Amino acid sequence: MEDSHAEQVLTVDGSVNSLGLVFVALPPLPPPPMVVKQVHQGTWADSSGIQPGFEVLELGGLKVGSMTREEFQVAIKSRPLRIRVQAPHSEAWRRVAHFQRETVRLHLKKALLQKALRDEHEKVKLELGIDAKTEEERRAKNRETRAEIATQRQRLEEQKAALGLQQEELQKAQQQLEVLDQQTQSRRKKLELDKLQFSQQQEELAKARHDFDASRKSTLEAIEKEKLQIASERRKLQSSADEASMAEQEREELDEERRLIDVERQEVAQQRDLFEAEKRQLQLQLEEQQRLLERQRAEMEEDEAGMARQREELLAQKSRAAQLAAQCAEQEAALAQQKARGAAEAQSLAEAKAEAAELRKQLEKEKAEFEEKSKKTQQTLLAHKKQLMQVKNRLAAEKEKIEAAKADLETARAAQLPAAVSSAAQTETTQVIPAAAQTELGTCEAAVQTEALPVDNTENTDPPGALPEPPELPDPEPESVVQRSETSPKSLRSPNLVASQDKLRSGRSSPFQEKAETRGNQSPSSPSKSPRFAPAPWDWPSPRNDAAGTSPESRTAASPRRLKAAASMEELPQSEESARKVLASSSRVRRLLAQELPLRSSNVPKGPPRRGKLLRSASGQ
Asked: Which InterPro entries match (predicted)?
């Protein structure tokens, strides 16, 4: 147990890019230990044996508990890196690791299920015809618009904050300007007081100068007077020198007077020195006051220049504030427009979603209606198929009777040449009946061919009341009749066979009838068609025979066409109406034959006794 909980020191080389560790919490840690939460497979941590629950104690020699976030990021990226880890102290961490693995497995399962759900959702969208790209583009556009609106809101908030800061700065600048104005006003008051004091001092100096000049003039006058007196006294002394020698008292007085004059002279010199000193002091004071005045003037000029600059800056800041306010108003208007656009786009998105839901409902309704219609058409087609089989059996019986009449007629022609009239009448009767049946079958087959075309959801560009013409059908081969009869039940099962009564009732001639007429017109032109005998004058083809086709080759060529028509009757949806038309046409042909044959029999020479039997069998049919 002690070994399992022992500390381990691991080194990470420079070749390792990612350690593959996921921690529960990163530094700065509330509790000191940093616990490993998850270990990625195939990484350095997995290969070195680190498991979930290990505690990381040191990174690069530094304790993890005292690290900051920046120190941890720098240390985890440094190479080589020494990591000191400690194994978990309990089995709970193993349970945590197992739980982590289970969560990873469940997350993977959840991702796979979400992917399958997305695939199913895309398949359903493809089946319903919903375009996922347009929805994604709209969602992306909505996200972009929301992001742009958020960024613009952030910009507006930043601009508002900047504008608030600028307003605060403006208020501070205004307060500073007010303080400066007060200081300048106080300085102005001080300067005015200094000016008044200076003017008073100048007046006092002027008075002192005037007094000094007056005293100087008086002293100078007194000195000049004294000089004159001294000069006069000298003269007197020179004149009285002779007299002074005679009297000593007069000399002593003269010495005293001289001494007094010297004292006065000394006093005058002292007064001059004092006056000059005072004058110098006053000049120095005047110079100092002039200098102070010049300094104050310079300070005043500097203060005035600073005030002008501050006023200009204040005006510029006011203009900037006005511009910012205008920009804010414009941005608010643009934001309102963008909000309106976002609301319109959201409304359009809701309308598109509603339209998509309506389209889904319509598609589901159309699908259900289509299934019901397909079931009904299959049921009706089965009923029509049964009716058509009955009509086919009747037509096959009539066809066998007609072929038997044809065989009897051919044997009669081969037996006797004088019986040409009877054979011509018989061929006429035999050709009129299949021609009528062929025309009816051709019209039915043409209608079926036109209606068997697939019905698309395209618009009808034909004018109203116009009927589409039937397509030209190729000449059927005898071998394809059997294949057509075999494939007809499969074509009856297709849901695209929709009966059109207008096309069935239209009196257009079928291409089979036109080809039969062309072959009937071409057959009598070649005299080498009948190998047994040349035709008699009364056997020449009449307009009636031209329409029906009297040559045996034309009859043999028409037989696979009739088989084709009989086989195509299986594809006809409305079998009852077509069968009634065929029966009515065959009854009309029989009546016409019954009326025309007695008229022609009077002009034709008598033949063998078998002719009447053939006519009776034909009229009975």
From this structure: PDZ (IPR001478), PDZ_sf (IPR036034)
Give the H/E segment covering residue 48.
Answer: helix 44-48
Question: What DSSP designation does 7 have?
Answer: E
Q: Residue 451: helix, strand or coil by DSSP?
A: helix
Is residue 533 pLDDT above 60, yes or no? no
Tokens of 352: 């598109």
Q: How far is CA 557 from CA 12, 416, 443, 544, 563, in A?
A: 99, 26, 19, 19, 11
Quote the CA–CA distance of 545 and 428 in Å, as a whole number. Answer: 7
- CA 234 and chain centroid, separation: 132
Distance CA 177, CA 180 (A): 5
Angle CA(163)–CA(169)–CA(170) in degrees, nearest 5? 90
Distances (CA, A) of 6 to 58, 86, 180, 556: 14, 6, 74, 110
DSSP 224-270: HHHHHHHHHHHHHHHHSHHHHHH-HHHHHHHHHHHHHHHHHHHHHHH
The string of pLDDT tens digits covering residues 179-192 is 888 888 888 888 88
pLDDT in tens, 351-394: 888 888 888 888 888 888 888 887 888 888 888 888 888 888 88
Closest CA to 488 of 591, 581, 381: 381
User: What top-level class would CATH report for the domain 7-89?
Assistant: mainly beta
- Give the 3-state DSSP-derived string for 336-353, with helices as H, strands as E and coil as C: HHHHHHHHHHHHHHHHHH
Q: How far, rounded to the nearest angstrom, does the alpha carbon of residue 252 sit from its chain's CA centroid?
A: 137
- Higher per-residue confidence, 580 vs 203: 203
Neighbours of 299 (CB within 10 A): 13
Nearest to 261 by CA among 231, 294, 221: 231
Q: Is the dihedral of CA 86, 89, 90, 92 positive or negative?
A: negative
Q: How far is CA 545 from CA 15, 235, 529, 614, in A?
A: 106, 204, 16, 19
List, in sequence order, every beta strand (DSSP E) within 28-80: 34-39, 55-59, 62-63
Q: Which helix (H) or strand (E) holds 86?
A: strand 81-86
CA dihedral sign of residues 449, 451, 452, 454:
positive
Q: Is the pTM of this model over 0.85?
A: no
